[in-house]
Write a structure and sequence with these properties.
Layout: H1 8-17, H2 38-45, E1 53-55, E2 73-78, E3 87-91, E4 101-103, H3 120-123, E5 124-125, E6 128-129, E7 141-149, H4 150-153, E8 164-165, H5 167-177, E9 186-190, H6 193-200, E10 210-211, H7 214-222, E11 226-229, H8 245-254, E12 257-260, H9 265-274, E13 278-283, E14 293-295, E15 299-301
Helix pairs in contact: 1-8
Length: 302
Amino acid sequence: MGDHEMTDEELLALAERVSNRGRWGHDDELGTLNYITPEKRRTAAALVRSGETLSIARDLSATPDPATGEAVDHRMLFAGPGPTYASDYVGIAPHGFTMTHLDAVCHSTWNGRLYNGRHVEDVQYHDGLAFGSIHAMRDGIFTRGVLLDVARALDVEYLEPDHLIGVEDLHAAEELCGVHVESGDALLVRTGLRRWEAEHGPLSADTRAGLGARCVEWMHEREVAVYGGDCVELIPYPSDMIQMPLHHIAMPSMGLILLDWPEVEELAVTCRHYDRWEFLLTVAPIRLPRATGAAVNPICVF
């Protein structure tokens, strides 16, 4: 049965099957980052061979994005020729479809519930999150990254906007790339979004290829620690009840950590150059208590 055939009742049952509520204790705020053990970090560090580093963050811009209107607020406070230094102010709303960012584990809710069984009214306040904020990730993410190039596995330049990525697509990418997603990995997926936009123009944020809900269960079974890529769930998703399975099932039920909108095109080129699709990935958010997310600069090391 394909993802398009999943009923709302099946999606609700899926949310129960993948729940990690209480798995790491009632007060846990790390969610799937708990899969990244000290041994996993040592193994990830051993992947460094050439020592080449690659940023997979998108450039921040004060110019509104043509498809979403998103931008950062960048203003100069002091500049020459008078002052002896230059200074500026940067205001960032990290969430959206253009900025590379980490979601706090309690960023997204469904039906009034957040990760680890918390209720929205007990967590989300006007001054920030009382539980599960980005501050919980202050020690950073240091683990094995794996790129699954789904577009390449399907022998296309890019996926069409209505393509729902299924588990079989992830398996095909694993086979092509010669990797196996394992416990504690950071999984990155490439659909070729940048190439689609280069050919057709900016793509609306509410019409994009993405993962199907069955991939959520697959990530739960593989114990994926972090998910990112040039896609999230299929948008729009074919359900009236749960329209964003990654945000409404994987995050509040699993505690899955989302690294939204890394730049994977150059990463894919680098992986093809070295003919290996695994690498050390490091990510560190700002130490801002109660924040729902943070713009980040993830670094891959080969």
